[in-house]
Write a structure and sequence with these properties.
286 residues; alpha/beta; five-stranded mixed beta sheet; 8 helices; RNaseH_sf; IS3 family transposase ISMex5; Integrase_cat-core; Transpos_IS3
Length: 286
């Protein structure tokens, strides 16, 4: 058709600049997408906000909206959010929950069970600082008794000091007279939850859920020693690298600045990567 560009654009309601400027994406879109997909594959239970925090820690200057756009374009699934729970109230209507106010104010601990490949049971004693959300220790063994609880706490007290309160359920290891006498003797106080009310120990229960969801459900442990090494490596990653939403997507206890991928898993013994993911680690993006 012998018609001018101006007239054709006017008829179509289209700006003339669209005929001259070729649309193109950002120069770093492909590399960013590759790094985002690699992170999503490595940390399969993280949503786009945690992935965005890891990208920033690795050297990317990117906002959450751009990460979310790429996340949805690639068809990645956001993990379901944890349902909200109500406050804890006494019969007279007063709130009785002991809330942490500073570091070492309230610790909480609990047991988690798993099995090695041969079907034998392993137990984990998890100790969490409720104020900082830091996992202070995970003791992994075939059996754990009250004496083992005292052993773990004594090591922590020497390194970190004595907390004001230690919260737990009413398990036999925690209500043992020897443990209660020892805790009282060192100057701490025991805070037991109401029987049958695990939500009162919400901090450590939330940690237990993250441990099981992000590690235990996806690992096969062939020996007790393997479980101890892998779980301790994950604990260090949880404290020093993993973004926590309640802490503004920062880790609870970062020791030093490091690329986000160098701490987990520990079995990847290799030099620290540059600020962005190496090309060799990037999956092909179509």
């Amino acid at each position: 058709m012998n018609i001018s560009e101006r007239r054709a654009c006017r008829a179509l309601g289209q700006h003339r600049s669209t005929q001259r400027k070729v649309p193109r994406g950002r120069d770093d879109e492909e590399a960013l997408t590759a790094d985002l997909v690699a992170l999503a594959e490595k940390y399969g239970r993280y949503g786009y906000r945690k992935i965005s925090a890891l990208l920033k820690a690795a050297g990317w200057f990117v906002n959450d909206k751009r990460v979310e756009r790429i996340w949805r374009r690639e068809g990645l699934k956001v993990p379901a959010k944890q349902p909200k729970r109500g406050r804890i109230w006494d019969n007279d209507g007063s709130c009785v929950r002991l809330r942490p106010e500073h570091r070492n104010h309230v610790w909480s601990y609990d047991f988690v069970e798993a099995r090695t490949h041969d079907g034998r049971k392993i137990r984990m004693l998890n100790v969490v600082d409720e104020f900082t959300h830091e996992c202070l220790a995970i003791r992994v063994a075939r059996k754990l008794k009250a004496t083992d609880v005292i052993d773990v706490l004594s090591d922590l007290f020497i390194v970190r000091g004595v907390p004001g309160h230690i919260r737990s359920d009413n398990g036999p290891e925690f209500v043992a007279k020897a443990l209660q006498a020892w805790i009282t003797g060192v100057g701490a106080k025991s805070a037991y939850i109401t029987p049958g009310s695990p939500w009162e120990n919400g901090y450590v229960e939330s940690f237990n859920a993250r441990l099981r969801d992000e590690l235990l459900n996806g690992e096969i442990f062939y020996t007790l020693r393997e479980a101890q090494v892998v779980i301790e490596s994950w604990r260090r990653h949880y404290n020093g690298v993993r973004p926590h939403a309640s802490l503004g997507y920062r880790p609870p206890a970062p020791e030093v600045f490091m690329p986000a991928f160098s701490a987990w898993p520990a079995a990847l013994a290799r030099p620290a990567p540059p600020a962005k993911l190496p090309v060799a680690e990037r999956p092909t993006v179509h």
